[in-house]
From TrEMBL:
Main localization of the protein described in the UniProt heading: membrane
GO CC, alphabetical: plasma membrane
Gene: tagB_1
Family assignment from sequence similarity: Belongs to the CDP-glycerol glycerophosphotransferase family.
Keywords on record: Cell membrane, Membrane, Teichoic acid biosynthesis, Transferase
InterPro entries, A to Z: Glycerophosphate_synth, Glyco_trans_2-like, Nucleotide-diphossugar_trans, TagF_C, TagF_N, Teichoic_Acid_Biosynth
Single biological process term from Gene Ontology: teichoic acid biosynthetic process
Localization per record: Cell membrane
Organism from which the protein derives: Tetragenococcus koreensis
Protein's name in the database: CDP-glycerol glycerophosphotransferase
Length: 757
């Protein structure tokens, strides 16, 4: 047997395990065994039972990855051991490539390394969606079949398959690294995964992992390995896929697990490494790395910021490192007194110097021009958040200050009406023009401030209540007496946060940040029981803080009058004698110009709609607030109106006789009006499978038909009465499930609970 793949398994990554196993099954070179070592994992057997792998499982009573790996070294039957993590995967060519390098270099191939690529299982970017099927099914047999059966293969897939063959025909290249390159070039992070090491070499040199340091045992292990080996052959092609964990709350990677002793353990690992090393160059490099780690990671981290006692053990380790003989290392002049104090054991002095260094650093950032946001944050944290709370002040924000709308608007209006003199209202709005004609902004007790202005940082600190429909910046310091009321902005249809497998086109820290932000909400409003259930899973939000009261924003849909209808229509310049179609689609995760800047291609044939429906109807187009493209409707003057930037979609609902949407939550609200809804879902297959997936069965449970072409849309509008008849029963059920709490009094209930308690 040529290879033993050693995989420690700690059950914090079940989602990835399946991919890991599959990538091993898909290896073109199959002469290997897999050793899984775990500590009471219930699910490992289940996963492996179904697999075709040649595997063995070992249960180990200790907790550490280090001792798991040592079991693997002892038990391995293969000539070479590949250290792998259970949340990573291999390219199908990984082992065949390694085998080739070994065969060509029998005498010198003691240590090999697969070059690492990072991947996040993200299926949405073009590259990854192409790679996925190729990666999953890439056995030679399968590839052959694919090429033979050309009708099943798209040009794109064909190219990928041919590329893969080329990989095989042309051997991958590799580079050899010598001892003095190891530390800096080869293994910056000093992790054992992706290394392939000859078993006899490990045993002869007594290379095992030290089990004392459960976080950083790899570092001294690799330093010892570097001492013993002449060269390491690393592939130039990326063959080892390291997964990015985007859910550090539920599925943290080892480095994401919170540990207060993390910094100490790391400095200990540096110390151990330096003691183990016989190579002068490596000693010097470890020393330099330890000093840099101390300067830029230890003292700047909050855990060590507070007490001398906490940082003392780190100083002691560092002292021992600094006292090891080596060529002198370069240290910046301003850091020298601090490092010298540590070396000589004057730890109190070192502590004082490190604190002063941090203080000087924050002052220098504060006074630097162009660092306004930093100054604002710092002022908010250190001064504003310590000011007394203004008990009668309420701050509102809707769609990040983009408009005056949604539940914050409804609650504001309710309070103006019911308690006109009691409150000071402050609205976060980026463009004052938006409200210049709104009478409710005339009073002296209503202020408007732009998001991220100095006043914003002041009011987010001192307002007793903060009512918002999206999320507040995570860095804002919250006063203990402050109350944050999150209204959220829709009944969920698309999977959200923790229910999403992949977070697409967004930050990989998204889930963790979302979690932290939502912990600061004192209340969260749900429109219905269904949303309440979803919020407990998708946001991991505590059920007891959810107010399942119906949506304040939907009060107006119940309470509006026919006069309101005509007044709005007139103010928007829409002919009173025409019926109105509202087209309000959502955004698409995979269509964007840049991060957060989405595009939309109008797939509704306005020309045909005007021809067929223009006598009776006009159409109002309402793009999602993420869409930055501007529609050019000049050709359709008098028939099509763009109200994408209009403040409040509720006004558009009220004047519309029917709604066309797709996967936007707008239909949950519009259904309150009991008017027809059509679903123009031309990209349903892609949206559902490739992107996020839905909470409800869109094929069966929607209150209107799914349509795929403009012609179908036209046809259904012409026969709208029969659509209503056909969907009568489904509409009723839908209304009961999602709209029944919207009785026009949600604002009142929320105010009673949040502002009167
Ligand atoms: N919206 C709008 N115009 C659109 C689409 C949406 O004004 N063309 C507003 C509506 O108030 C809607 C809200 O934005 O309820 C949320 O929009 P969705 O399309 O549902 O998408 P998203 O912003 O991703 O929110 O729980 C709801 C989810 O968070 C979805």
């Amino acid at each position: 047997m040529e290879f033993s793949i050693v995989i420690p398994y700690k059950e914090n990554s079940p989602k990835f395990l399946e991919y890991c196993i599959e990538s091993l099954e898909n290896q073109i070179y199959q002469k290997f065994e897999v050793l899984f070592i775990h500590n009471q994992s219930a699910i490992l057997e289940d996963y492996l039972e179904k697999s075709s792998l040649n595997y063995r499982i070992f249960e180990n009573t200790t907790e550490t990855t280090a001792s798991f790996r040592n079991v693997g070294i002892r038990e391995a039957a293969g000539n070479y051991i590949l250290f792998m993590d259970a949340d990573d995967f291999l390219h199908p060519n990984a082992l065949i490539y390694a085998k080739r390098v070994i065969d060509e270099n029998r005498d010198t191939a003691n240590v090999l390394k697969l070059r690492i690529a990072k991947t996040d299982l993200d299926k949405t970017s073009a590259l990854k969606s192409e790679k996925k099927p190729f990666y999953r099914s890439a056995t030679l047999d399968h590839l052959n079949r694919m090429l033979e059966n050309t009708s099943d293969v798209s040009a794109n897939e064909r190219q990928i398959v041919e590329d893969l063959f080329n990989y095989d025909v042309i051997p991958h290249d590799f580079k050899s690294y010598m001892a003095d390159d190891y530390f800096s070039k080869l293994s910056y992070h000093l992790k054992a995964h992706s290394f392939i090491i000859k078993k006899t070499f490990l045993l002869e040199n007594n290379l095992f992992f030290n089990t004392q340091n459960d976080l950083y045992a790899d570092m001294p292990f690799l330093i010892r390995l570097y001492n013993q080996t002449e060269e390491i052959k690393q592939t130039t092609t990326k063959l080892y896929y390291k997964s990015i964990h985007n859910d550090p709350i539920n599925e943290p990677s080892a480095s994401q697990v919170e540990r207060p002793d993390r910094q100490l353990k790391k400095v200990q690992a540096f110390n151990e490494s330096i003691k183990e090393s016989t190579n002068d160059i490596i000693i010097k490099k470890v020393k330099k790395a330890a000093v840099n780690y101390y300067l830029y990671n230890v003292v700047t981290k909050a855990s060590f910021k507070e007490s001398f006692k906490a940082v003392l053990p780190v100083y002691q380790e560092l002292q021992s490192i600094l006292q090891v003989d080596s060529e002198p290392i370069k240290i910046k002049k301003r850091h020298r007194p601090e490092i010298d104090s540590i070396k000589s054991g004057s730890f109190k002095a070192a502590y004082f110097l490190s604190r002063s260094r941090l203080f000087a650093y924050s002052i220098s950032r504060f006074i630097k021009p162009k660092k306004t946001r930093y100054r604002q944050k710092s002022l908010q944290k250190n001064i504003f958040s310590k000011l007394p709370i203004k008990k009668r002040t309420i701050l509102y924000e809707s769609f990040l200050g983009r408009n005056y709308s949604d539940s914050p608007k409804a609650l504001f209006n309710y309070l103006l009406q019911e308690e006109p003199d009691k409150w000071q209202h402050v609205w976060i709005l980026n463009d004052k023009e938006l409200i210049k004609d709104e009478p409710e902004f005339q009073g002296s007790n209503v202020k408007v401030i732009p998001r991220f202005s100095w006043r914003y940082f002041y009011y987010v600190s001192v307002a007793k209540y903060f009512v918002l429909n999206m999320r507040q910046p995570n860095y804002l310091e919250k006063h203990k007496d402050q109350v944050i009321l999150s209204t959220w902005h829709g009944t969920p249809l698309k999977h959200l946060v923790f229910d999403m497998d992949n977070v697409t086109s967004a930050n990989k820290k998204y889930k963790r940040i979302f979690y932290e932000q939502s912990r600061k909400w004192d209340y969260l409003i749900a429109d219905n029981k269904y949303s309440e259930n979803i919020f407990t899973s998708a946001f991991m939000y505590p059920r007891e803080n959810i107010l399942t009261y119906g949506y304040p924003r939907n009060d107006i849909l119940v309470n509006h009058t026919p006069e309101d209808h005509d007044r709005i229509k007139q103010s928007l310049g829409i002919p009173l004698d025409k019926k109105v179609i509202l087209y309000a689609p959502t955004w698409r995760d995979d269509e964007f110009h840049s991060v957060g800047n989405y595009k939309f291609t109008l797939r509704l044939n306005l020309e045909r709609l005007r021809e067929e429906l223009g006598d009776e109807y006009v159409i109002v187009l309402r793009m999602h607030y993420f869409i930055s493209d501007v529609l050019d409707l000049s050709e359709y003057e008098g028939f099509a109106f763009d109200y994408s930037k209009y403040n409040d979609i509720n006004d558009l609902y009220i004047i519309s006789d029917l709604l066309i949407t797709d996967y936007s939550s707008v239909f949950f609200d519009f259904a309150n009006l009991k008017r027809p809804i059509l679903f123009y879902t031309y990209d349903l297959a892609k949206y559902k499978d490739e992107l996020r997936g839905f909470y409800i069965d869109v094929q069966n449970d929607l209150p209107g038909p799914l349509l795929y072409t403009s012609e179908e849309v036209i046809d259904r509008i012409k026969n709208i009465k029969s659509v209503m008849y056909e969907y009568e029963e489904k509409y009723k059920l839908f209304y009961e499930q999602y709209c029944s709490l919207d009785d026009g009094k949600a604002s009142e209930r929320v105010v009673e609970e949040v502002l009167k308690s």
